[in-house]
Amino acid sequence: MQxxxxxxxxxxxxxxxxxxxxIRVVCEREKIEYEVLVMDDGSTDGTFDKAREISAxxxxxxxxxxxxxxxxxxxxxxxFRRVRGRYVITMDADLQDNPSEIPGLIRMLDEGxxxxxxxxxxxxDPWHKTVPxxxxxxxxxxxxxxxxxxxxxxxxAYRSEVVKSVxxxxxxxxxxxxxxxxxxxxxxxxKVVEHRARQFGHSKYGWARLTxxxxxxxxxxxLHRYTRRPLHLFxxxxxxxxxxxxxxxxxxxxxxAVTGQLHVRPMMLAGAASVIVGIQFISxxxxxxxxxxxxxxxxxxxxxxxxxxxxxxTGA
Length: 316
Fold this sequence. Notes:
The protein is of the alpha/beta class. It is 50% helix and 12% strand. The chain folds into two domains: 3-226, Spore Coat Polysaccharide Biosynthesis Protein SpsA, Chain A (Alpha-Beta Complex), CATH 3.90.550.10; 230-294.
C-alpha cells in the first residue's frame, strides 16, 4: 500500500462525501494506490452512516466510530495504529484542505522528507481563529526549535515509521512535528498549501484552544525533559530553596556570633522553612528516580538504519 489517508471527522456529514470524491479523483488520476480511514469522533449528525454508505461502494474507504467524542488526538492515535500505507497523509474533513495537494506532498516524501507540514499562508478564517493560531505557532516554534509557521494545519504527510513512533493523548496532535523531531526524525519540511473557505458547518476552534494548547505545550516539554530525570528538576528547585534558606540562616548565625544575641524573627522562620522545603523537593526527586528505576520500561532509542547482517535484538 503506497498511501493511507487519515481523516478525523466530527459532525461533517455534508462535507465528507465531497472530500472523499475529490480524493478519489486525484488519486486515480495520479495512479496512487491508497486507502482512506475516516475516524468518526462520536458525531451526532450521521457522519459515520454516510461514511459506511460510501465504504459499501468503495473498498478503499474504511470508517471507524468512537462511542463518544474523544478528541482529535485520540482519533489520530487510533488511526495511526491501523494505517497500512508506506506514507500517511492526514487532512481535516471540513473541505478546507485541498486533496490536490496530495501528489506534491508525496513527492516531498519521495525526496527524503520524514514529515511535511502544510502551511495555510493565505487563510479564509475569521480573525478570532487566525489571531490565536498565529500566537500559538510563534510560541510553539520558539519553544520546540521546530521552525514551522502552522503547527495546527491538519494537512500533513508522514513516513509510516514517523506516525508509528509517536504517542498521542490529550491535545498533543498539534505537536506531532515536535514529537517526531524528538524521536530523531529531523528532516521536517513545510509546504504552502491552499486553504479553502469552509462550505458547511462552523469552525470548532478559537481562543480557548490557544490556552489549552499552551498548557499542553508546557506539559509536553516537562514530560520530555524530566520524565526520565525527575531529580534534574526537583533537585534544582530543592537546591535553590535550600541555599536561599541557608543563606538567611547564615546571616542570623553571623549576627549571633558578633552580638551574642539571637532574636527569632519571621525572616529566620522563613529561612528554616525554605531549607525544609528544599529538602522535600530533593526527596521528591530521589523518590521519582527510584520509581523510574523500578517501574519505567527501558525504551530503546529509535533506530534509523542497520547494515546487512546486523544481529537482531533479543527480548529481556
